[in-house]
Design goal:
This protein is an alpha/beta fold. It folds into two domains: about 1-140, no CATH class; about 150-290, no CATH class. The chain is about 50% helix and about 15% strand. It has six helices and eleven strands. The chain has helices at about 1-35, 50-85, 95-140, 210-230, 265-270, 280-290, and strands at about 40, 150-155, 160-165, 170-175, 180-185, 190-195, 200, 205, 235-240, 245, 255-260. A five-stranded mixed sheet has the order 2-3-4-9-11. It has a four-stranded mixed sheet with strand order 8-7-6-10. A two-stranded antiparallel ribbon has the order 1-5. Helix 1 runs parallel beside helix 3 (about 95-140). The longest helix has about 45 residues, at about 95-140. It starts with a helix and ends in an 8-residue tail after the last helix. This is Nuclease-like protein. It holds the Pfam family NERD.
Length: about 300
């Protein structure tokens, strides 16, 4: 009896256990995320961008297509199981070394897929939070257009994108937007200090965003110089939606500015800087527009 039961349990387990493990892993990860003490700092309502409803419908249709494709791939194997399993002589079924090798390989494959699934789900959440941060920043920056600024978003730049570019009457700004979860609740948990070289979040420090903003601005300055035939100064900016930025000792005169997107005076206060001529601004905007790909469909 035992020799008959073991093979049947193993075969049925190969059919149903992988799906159960995947569902359990997803539920565990979701529960862990809900119990985490880190929260998004963005609390205001986000207005829809152009085509938002159409994009949501398109994404939903894409998910439905993938679901149908998965069902198509499962129909054949499930039909074969329904047909063949009743015909199996369980009392004569013996598992040889090749069968155990297949079972071991399937088990390892399931473990790898479950691990990959949880990693992809975490990366999807991070990309979603980054997208919401860019939308929040774009909503605030778009208001600068009423003040005579040109504002472009998600500008392709080789193997990376520039989150936002503001062509103000007196200067060009390359803006790197970052999404960081705040620890705990309340306004005090969303305070970040900036000393000119380092971002001082509650409980940790970062310099990478500052370095990225500087590198992006350098790339954009070189690109605009080559395209327009004249030098263009590009100011690097790090944007932190939902965070309250405190400028501490050492931040005065820093090459990289750190702002909340609601701090729009940076783009409007020309100070002693000369204004760009209308022709130069048009050349800059045209050069930036050329970075976007043409629609082929």
């Amino acid at each position: 009896m035992l020799n008959t039961l073991i093979p049947s349990v193993i075969l049925l387990g190969l059919v149903f256990v992988p799906l159960g493990i995947a569902i359990a892993a997803m539920l565990w990860q979701r529960r862990w995320e809900q119990r985490s003490d880190r929260r998004s700092p963005i609390s205001e309502r986000l207005l829809h961008q152009a085509g938002a409803q159409a994009r949501q419908k398109m994404d939903a249709l894409g998910d439905d297509m993938m679901e149908r494709l998965a069902q198509l791939m499962l129909i054949g194997p499930l039909a074969m199981l329904v047909i063949l399993l009743p015909r199996v002589r369980w009392d004569r079924l013996q598992l040889g070394w090749l069968n155990w090798l297949v079972i071991a390989g399937a088990t390892a494959w399931v473990a790898w897929l479950v691990r990959s699934f949880t990693q992809l789900r975490r990366r999807r959440r991070q990309w979603r939070e980054g997208m919401l941060a860019e939308i929040a920043a774009a909503q605030e920056l778009d208001r600068l257009q009423a003040e005579g600024c040109f504002v472009l978003h998600d500008v392709p730049a080789g193997d990376f994108n520039i989150d936002h570019v503001v062509v103000a009457p007196h200067a060009v700004f390359a803006i790197e937007t970052k999404s960081r979860r705040k620890p705990g609740k309340g306004k005090a948990s969303a305070n970040v200090g900036y000393d000119g070289t380092c971002l001082q979040f509650p409980g940790w420090k970062e310099t990478r965003p500052i370095e990225q903003a500087r590198a992006i601005a350098d790339w954009l300055a070189k690109y605009l110089r080559d395209k327009t035939g004249e030098p263009v100064v590009v100011h690097p900016v790090v944007c932190l939606p939902g965070w309250f930025v405190s400028l501490v000792k050492g931040s005065a005169g820093a090459a990289v500015r750190v702002i909340n997107p609601k701090m729009k005076s940076l783009f409007l206060d020309a100070g002693a800087a000369p204004l760009l001529t209308p022709a130069q601004r048009n050349r800059i905007v045209h050069a930036l527009s050329e970075r976007y790909p043409e629609l082929t469909e």
